Amino acid sequence: MMSGTYPIGTPGKPWGDAERAQWLSRQSMQRSYAEEVLSRIDALKAKFEVECYGVLGYGADRYPLMAVRSRVWDDALPSALVTGGVHGYETSGVHGALEFLERDAEGYAGKVNLLVVPCVSPWGYERIHRWNADAVDPNRSFREDGAAEEASALIRLVAPMRGDFLVHVDLHETTDSDESEFRPALAARDGKPYEPGEIPDGFYVVGDSENPQLAFQSAIVDAVSRVTHIAPADARGQIIGSDVVAPGVILYPFERLGLCAGVTGARFASTTEVYPDSPRATPEQCNKAQAVAVTAALDFALAAD
Questions:
Q1: Could you list the residue range(s) of the whole structural domain that residue 171 is in?
Q2: Does some domain include residue 9?
Q3: Is residue 2 predicted with pLDDT exceeding 50?
Q4: How many domains does the chain have?
Q5: pLDDT tens, residue by residue, 103-114
Q6: CA-CA distance, 236 to 284, in Å (whole number)?
Q7: What is the pLDDT of residue 4?
Q8: For 144-198, how does the pLDDT look when each residue is reduced to its tens digit (9 = 90+)?
């Protein structure tokens, strides 16, 4: 794959229906959303409100989209959104959100209203894939004309509260498969040349270039540095092609790119990125890093509010 070739499509020509169908035929279920995610959400019903905010359907497959809320929702308090699994293959985002709910969330009762969506993209979770079944990246689809139902469903969920959120933390990973599979597939899908990139070794965050909040981003990085290592800048002073503006911090224009982290318009918003393929990190560390990132974000925002 590193040669820039991809087994589907013609170089230089964007995919049509036939190529997308060929790609879809290669995807198979590798783990269970019901067993690994829904069962843990169900166990939270004793402590939180659990709701189904939609049903995702691809062919015969149906996936309930689940959100977990503070049991007592107080309009006088600030609100926070935590999302995981926007890219279904990014495992620690899902399990880090669940770990936060199981271990930490109760400690914020009476301080902040919590809305947590542990797995935005269950089809991708089961197939360990970045895209949905239509070969669309949900994390470029958080806009009115977005092509991913996963994103549209979340937009509908938060729309009544848009403007009320103080915090939004969107939990992600950067993996070796980004270079071995997903970026070559993206280039092939769009009929563009594949340009190899460099996978950063460690945790980093992405802030909004229109509202960077560097002290907030740095507070997350500092807290996570006690759990796992922080990604250094490369020789150009960058991480994944973007300038490092503070240790472990880069910036993207959230709303312009249609990213999940821009869906609420929160004052304090961040995407997290862990590196589960590092020889210096375990899956448990990655999950904990995500949960710690959430608590650090909440603690900073509540102190600043």
A1: 17-304
A2: no
A3: no
A4: 1
A5: 999 999 999 999
A6: 31
A7: 55
A8: 899 999 999 999 999 999 989 999 999 999 999 999 999 999 999 999 999 999 9
Confidence band of 100 (pLDDT split at 50, 70, 90): very high
Rg over alpha carbons for the chain, rounded to the nearest Å, is 18
Question: What backbone torsions phi and psi does residue 227 show, to the nearest 5 degrees?
Answer: -110, -45
Domain assignment present for residue 7? The answer is no
Residue identified by tokens 């509908």 is 156
CA distance 290 to 273: 8
Question: Over the stretch 42-62, which tens digit does the pLDDT of each residue have?
Answer: 999 999 999 999 999 999 999
Q: Are 116 and 99 in contact (CB under 8 A)?
A: no
- Tell whether 5 is covered by a domain: no
Mean pLDDT in the chain?
96
Residues 6+ apart with CB under 8 A from 291: 96, 97, 99, 100, 103, 104
pLDDT at 227 over 80: yes
- The CATH number for 281's domain is 3.40.630.10
- Whether 4 is covered by a domain: the verdict is no
Query: pTM value?
Result: 0.97
CB 109 within 8 A of CB 72: yes
37: which 2 tokens?
């995610």
